């Protein structure tokens, strides 16, 4: 059996196609310029979870419009803390963030709870779905970026009314925290694209 007849050797056209695909992949990988939002400034990843120094300054220069509901105020307060690291809103903001936060609660599971006399089909679990539409503008009011983020938080619905309301509010608080974190990441990505 001669060498080209062996099954583990490829024909010239197949070998050429494989080399072309390999070369194309190497060129594509070499052209990637991905830079993490969370970095130590020298290209290494930061374990502490802080953003790069230049990004921290941009985020700290964002003012957030006032909120009109309890859960929207919760998202706003968490964003102010995340943007500034606890220092509050800037005196002279370079950017302005407008938030539109809405919340809806739905019954996730309906079952008969209790003895045979309770056949109301009360919901025994619920879901809070919180949505934020944001617009990031510069100091002159020109929109730079906009987006929408949605989060959900589930909760149990006990038979006591107060416990039920408290569980729903706790789910709103969890959803507001997660929504603020998602909006902060989205805004950081939007700012990283600005020159």
From TrEMBL:
<dbReference type="Pfam" id="PF04390">
    <property type="entry name" value="LptE"/>
</dbReference>
<protein>
    <submittedName>
        <fullName>LPS assembly lipoprotein LptE</fullName>
    </submittedName>
</protein>
<dbReference type="InterPro" id="IPR007485">
    <property type="entry name" value="LPS_assembly_LptE"/>
</dbReference>
<keyword id="KW-0449">Lipoprotein</keyword>
């Amino acid at each position: 059996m001669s060498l080209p007849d062996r099954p583990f050797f490829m024909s010239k056209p197949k070998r050429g196609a494989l080399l072309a695909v390999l070369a194309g992949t190497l060129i594509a990988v070499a052209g990637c310029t991905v830079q993490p939002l969370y970095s130590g400034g020298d290209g290494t990843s930061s374990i502490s979870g802080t953003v790069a120094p230049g990004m921290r300054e941009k985020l700290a220069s964002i003012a957030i419009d006032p909120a009109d509901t309890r859960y929207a105020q919760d998202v706003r307060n968490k964003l102010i803390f995340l943007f500034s690291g606890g220092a509050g809103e800037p005196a002279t903001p370079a950017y302005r963030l407008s938030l539109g936060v809405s919340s809806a609660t739905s019954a996730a599971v309906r079952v008969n709870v209790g003895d045979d006399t309770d056949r109301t089909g009360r919901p025994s679990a619920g879901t809070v779905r919180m949505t934020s539409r944001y617009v990031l503008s510069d100091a002159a009011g020109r929109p730079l970026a906009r987006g929408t983020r949605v989060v959900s938080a589930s909760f149990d619905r006990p038979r006591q009314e107060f416990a039920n309301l408290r569980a729903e509010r706790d789910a709103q608080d969890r959803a507001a925290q997660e929504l603020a974190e998602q909006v902060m990441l989205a805004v950081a990505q939007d700012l990283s694209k600005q020159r």
